[in-house]
Structure prediction request, 171 residues.
Amino acid sequence: MTEFNAIYNANVYVNGNSQLGRASQFKLPDISVGQTETKGLGLVGSVKLPSGIEALEGEITWNSFYPDVFTKVYNPFKACQLMVRANVQAFNASGLAAEVPMVVMVMATFSKNPLGTYKPKEKAEFASTFQATEIHQTISGREVLYYNAFTNQYRVNGVDMLAQMRANIGM
Prediction:
């Protein structure tokens, strides 16, 4: 039976503290693989080969100013643990078949924090940009993705994609 997944809402946590209702949007980083173009004599074409993971950048848009949050995100020298918890609903021909948690943990340092834009009769929002060095994504308790820039770890569905590379360089 065919199933379709849907995620309609989530909650944000900063250093383990719920920010329920405070964020209007949380944009997780894109995993972007750097590639190097390779050309060779005798080849009619060129190929792009993976060369590593690009720097990870995301953004949280806050729906107002929250001093307890901004005193943490204003410090560019101290990483924050960010977490997004979402409810993944699976639908099939019978309707709602299952609901499971998706959790994404991010170690991040904030690189851009607005002081605000104020307009008459409009609610001020504050978008904070962060740089991520570690991401851990699970669904229903099962690891889907793990990446750590400092330890050269990259796992997909529990499979270590860089084990041989780390062994080859003596890590």
